[in-house]
Amino acid sequence: MKINNFAEAKRRLQELSDVMSDTVKDISNFLEVADSAITVMSTLKGGTASASPAIAPKPKLQPPMPPEANGAPLAMTERVLQLIREAGKPLMPKDVVEIYASKGWPRPEDGREFYMKISGSMAYLTKRKKVVAKTAAGYVLL
């Protein structure tokens, strides 16, 4: 149906809101009945009276690591970029791992995970940010 003027638009909007109102009421009624049925079934099985025990809460995301007193930037990528800047020479991921570890900045416990984060940060700085270039000698600042 094509709407040609404001009067038709207002009339269509009213019709739509009436239909939507009924639909919302229907869904609300369904949810109440379903909630009651689930509560009864859960109680009969010996569970709690809550109707939604099967829905697990979303895990909370860990906040980013706070900057340390020893000058570590907030993000891993920023830390890697700072190390490359300070080095003034081409660095391979292994070199960055050694320098990073010597600074005492917070890092993952797992050595493999730590290396992968360093390597991933270097690739990100090269391919996405384009502030670092990969050469045969290592990664250099552009």
- Give the overall average pLDDT: 81
Strand order of the largest sheet: 1-2
Instruction: Tell me which CATH architecture of the largest domain applies here.
Output: Orthogonal Bundle
* CATH domain class of the largest domain: Mainly Alpha
- Work out the helicity level: 55-70%
The helix/strand series, from N terminus to C terminus, equals HHHHEE
- According to CATH, the fold-level topology of the largest domain is Arc Repressor Mutant, subunit A
Walk me through the structure.
The chain is mainly α. The chain has 2 domains: 1-59; 76-141, Arc Repressor Mutant, subunit A, CATH 1.10.10. The protein is built from 4 helices and 2 strands, in the order ααααββ. It has helices spanning 6-44, 76-87, 93-103, 111-127, and strands at residues 132-134, 139-141. A two-stranded antiparallel sheet has the order 1-2. Helix 2 (76-87) packs across helix 4 (111-127) and helix 3 (93-103) crosses helix 4. The termini are far apart. The mean pLDDT is 81.
